[in-house]
Amino acid sequence: MTRVLVVDDDPRLQRTLTIALRAHGNEVVTAADGRTAVQSVLEDAPDVVILDLGLPDLDGTEVLRRIRAASVVPVIVLSARHESDDKIEALDLGADDYVTKPFGVEELLARVRAAVRRGGDLGRHLGPVVTDHFVLDFAERRATVEGEDVRLTPTEWRVLEALCREPGHLVQQQDLLRAVWGPSYGRESNYLRVYANQLRRKLEPDPANPRHLVTEPGLGYRFNP
Amino acid sequence: MTRVLVVDDDPRLQRTLTIALRAHGNEVVTAADGRTAVQSVLEDAPDVVILDLGLPDLDGTEVLRRIRAASVVPVIVLSARHESDDKIEALDLGADDYVTKPFGVEELLARVRAAVRRGGDLGRHLGPVVTDHFVLDFAERRATVEGEDVRLTPTEWRVLEALCREPGHLVQQQDLLRAVWGPSYGRESNYLRVYANQLRRKLEPDPANPRHLVTEPGLGYRFNP
DNA sequence: CGGGCCCGTCAAGAACGCGTCAAGAGCCAT
DNA sequence: ATGGCTCTTGACGCGTTCTTGACGGGCCCG
C-alpha cells in the first residue's frame, strides 16, 4: 500500500485529496504546515509527498529544502501560480513533479502513481552494509567502526548512501552531487572532496590510503565493501 | 521521431527552422526566452536543443548552464558573433556544437542529425572488451591485464573508447583526435603518438610489437580484439 | 646511397584535480 | 542571547596528468 503525505493548509482541498487517494487504495497522512510536514516525512516515511507551496509557517521552497535534507522521497509540488520561475526553482530544489492549480484529481492520481514508480527504490532503505572494519546501518542511522559507535552528519549519511547503493561500482561526481544536493548541483565543487575526506577520517582504518572509499580521478568515487 | 527544441527570440527565424525541421520528419517545440527553454527541456525532454545566444531574459551562457544542470541533452548553439571566445565558452559549458549566423538550413539539419546520433551512442556505454591478454570495462573504468588491475588516465580511456567503438576497423587520425580532444583538433599533433605509446605500454604483452593497438601508417589506428 | 616522411620515445613545464585546512554562516537547542 | 554543530566556501600544496618540443629510427622513393 502506498503511503501519501498530503501537505496543505486548506482543509477543503486536504479532504478532497484524502478521500480521492484513499478511494484508490492509498494510505494518507496529512500536515497543514511546513514543520509538521518535515516531521512527518521523518516519522511516517511516506512513499510520496504532495506539497502545496504557500504554507503559513515557512516559504514553500524552504519546506522543500528541508524535506530534501531529510529524505529522497518523491515530492509533487502544487502551486496556484503560473510563474515558470517557481517551477524551475522547485524542480531545482529537488521536486519530482509540478502541478498547477486548478488541476483534475485524476491527473494528480496519475502523477502520484508515476512518482511512486520512479522513486520506488530510492525511497527503500538500504540494508546494513558490513565491511571488515565498519558497519553501516542506514535504517537506524548507526555507524560502528571497530565496535565503536561513530557519529555521522546527515549529509555524510546521504553521501554514503548514494555510494553504497552501488557497492563496488563507480559513482560519477555528477550523479553523486545530484543524489545528495539536488538536480541543480551538476557542476564540480568542493562538496565531494570535503565529504569524502570527512568520511574517510571517520571510517577508514588509514584515511591517507583509503581502501573502501576510493577516488576515481576525474570521474567520481567508488565504495568497496 | 526526433524531438527538437528551438530556442530563439526572433519569430521569423523560429518559423523558418520549425518548417525546415518538420519537413525533415522532426517534431518541434519552441521557446522564445531562457526560462521557458529550461522549462521545456524539463517537460518536453527534447532529443536535441538548438539554442540562440542573446535571448531577452538571460545571458546565453546562463541558459546553457541551466540546461546542463537539468539534462545532458545535446545542445547546438547559434550565435551572430564571430568571437571565438564565445565559442570556446559555450563549448566549455557543454554545448555540443556551434553554428555562426548566417548559416544554411541544410548545414543546421546536418548538425542536428549528427548531434542526435552522437547523443544516442555516446551516451550508451560500451560493453566490456575482452582479449586474450586484457579486459576493459568502460562503464566501471576498470582495466585488467593478466588479472592485475591497471590504472588508465581519463584521456587514455577516451582514446581507447574511441578505438573500441569500431573494433577491428581503422579509425582515422582526424576522427580519433576529434573524438577525444574535441571538434577543433583536426590537425595532426603528437597526441596520438604519445597516447598510443602509453596505452601499449600498459596493455600490450610486447609493447614494441603491438598486437591489439595497431598503427596504420599515414591513416590512423586500429584496435584488434 | 641519400633524403624525406612518419612514427615511437623521452623529458620537462604547465595545468589540473584532489586532499586538506580553516573561517564564516546558518540552524538548533539550551 | 549563547554555544555547539553542520554546512558552505575559499585558499593552498601536492601529486598526477596533459601538453609540447626535440630527437632517433625505420621505411619508401628517387
Write a structural description:
The structure is a homodimer of 225-residue chains. The first copy, chain A, is α/β, with parallel strands linked by helices and 225 residues long. Helices cover 43% and strands 22% of the residues of chain A. Chain A has 8 helices and 12 strands. Chain A has helices at 11-23, 34-44, 60-70, 84-92, 105-123, 154-164, 173-181, 191-203; strands spanning 2-7, 26-31, 48-52, 75-79, 97-100, 129-130, 134-137, 142-145, 148-150, 170-172, 213-216, 220-223. In chain A, the strands form 3 sheets. A 5-stranded parallel sheet of chain A has the order 2-1-3-4-5, sandwiched between helices. A 4-stranded antiparallel sheet of chain A has the order 6-7-8-9, with no helix packed on it. In chain A, a hairpin with a 4-residue loop joins strand 7 and strand 8 (142-145). In chain A, helix 2 packs parallel to helix 3, helix 6 packs across helix 7 (173-181) and helix 6 crosses helix 8 (191-203). The mean pLDDT of chain A is 79. The A-B interface holds A 84-85, 87-88, 91-92, 169-170, 183-187, 216-219 and B 35-36, 38-39, 42, 66, 68-70, 139-141, 153-154. Chain B binds a DNA duplex (30 and 30 nucleotides) through helix 6 and helix 8.
What would you say about this model in short?
Two copies of one chain form a homodimer. With 225 residues, chain A is α/β, with parallel strands linked by helices.
Q: Return residue spans of chain A where pLDDT drops below 50 for at least 5 consecutive residues.
A: none
Order of strands, widest sheet of chain A: 2-1-3-4-5
Helix percent of chain A reads: 40-55%
The class by helix and strand makeup of chain A works out as alpha/beta
**Annotation field: number of helices of chain A:** 8
Which protein chains are joined by the largest interface, and how many residues does each one contribute? Answer: A-B, 17 and 14 residues
| Overall outline of chain A | elongated
Quaternary organization: homodimer
Global mean pLDDT of chain A = 79
Strand tally of chain A, please? 12
Report the C-alpha radius of gyration of chain A, rounded. 19 Å
Question: What is the rounded distance between the termini of chain A?
Answer: 33 Å
The share of residues in extended strands of chain A comes to 15-25%
